[in-house]
Write a structure and sequence with these properties.
By secondary structure, the chain is mainly alpha-helical. The protein folds into 2 domains: 158 residues, no CATH class; 31 residues. Helix content is 52%, strand content 7%. The strands form 2 sheets. A two-stranded antiparallel sheet has the order 1-2. It has a two-stranded antiparallel sheet with strand order 3-4.
């Protein structure tokens, strides 16, 4: 789930801490490193022509389009307070990934955004004399809609999302104003910052406030003693 902290496309980030995503863009070496690190997350099991199960990978070009969508959805999940909306974002991510797997397993399927391809299907259906029901089944077959009706097999990406959905209480956004990787999992109760570096400014501010406002601070105790000594 590290992609939640990938900077926006072509954005330039000045990191407070050393992060692997500073100055990241869609065509940068940082994206290559991230994909190499997490490539195993985007794998799935599929039955080959030999009838045996094989581990397959989502093609790189599809991942380059998918990762920014994952990043955006995860940021919404991380900050959204409404439970129903968070659940919807989780579903949309899992559903989108399921679509990618179906297309990776069946490269012949037609993309519904392919205007020319859809028009060819329309022409073929008319030439066959299909009635509305036959035409609907014809389009379902060639767009893969019928393949999306069953619950898909579990895969690493969906398993990670399922774990995240079950552990939403651990998801926090760092309170550090200049944090370069603000989305993190808390490790202790009451935690507000992802690291001591991000917590330092707030800690110093709290100490300064205590020094100036608390009646127990040495500064204010000295004032009281001086006042009563007069």
């Amino acid at each position: 789930m590290e992609c939640v902290n990938l900077p926006d496309t072509l954005a330039t980030i000045i990191p407070v801490r050393n992060t692997p995503y500073a100055n990241w863009s869609d065509d940068s070496p940082q994206l290559d490193r991230w994909l190499r690190k997490w490539q195993r997350l985007f794998t799935f099991r599929s039955e080959g022509d030999d009838g045996k199960g094989h581990t397959m990978e989502i093609p790189r070009e599809q991942l380059e389009r998918f990762v920014p969508k994952v990043r955006t959805a995860l940021r919404r999940i991380w900050t959204e307070q409404d439970v129903r909306q968070r659940d919807w974002y989780f579903y949309r991510l899992r559903d989108a990934y399921s679509h990618m797997i179906v297309r990776a397993e069946n490269p012949y399927l037609l993309d519904v955004t392919d205007v020319q391809g859809v028009e060819k299907l329309e022409q073929t259906s008319r030439a066959r004399g299909d009635n509305p029901e036959q035409k609907a089944r014809f389009f379902e077959t060639w767009t893969g809609a019928d393949l999306l009706e069953d619950v898909p097999r579990i895969c690493p990406f969906e398993a990670a999302l399922y774990w995240l959905q079950a552990n939403q209480r651990l998801m926090l956004r760092c309170g550090g104003a200049m944090c370069a990787a603000p989305y993190f999992f808390r490790t202790e109760k009451g935690q507000k910052f992802c690291s001591p570096e991000c917590a330092d400014p707030a800690r110093r501010e709290a100490k300064l406030r205590w020094w100036n406002e608390s009646p127990n601070s040495p500064k204010n105790q000295a004032k009281r003693k001086k006042k009563f000594a007069r």
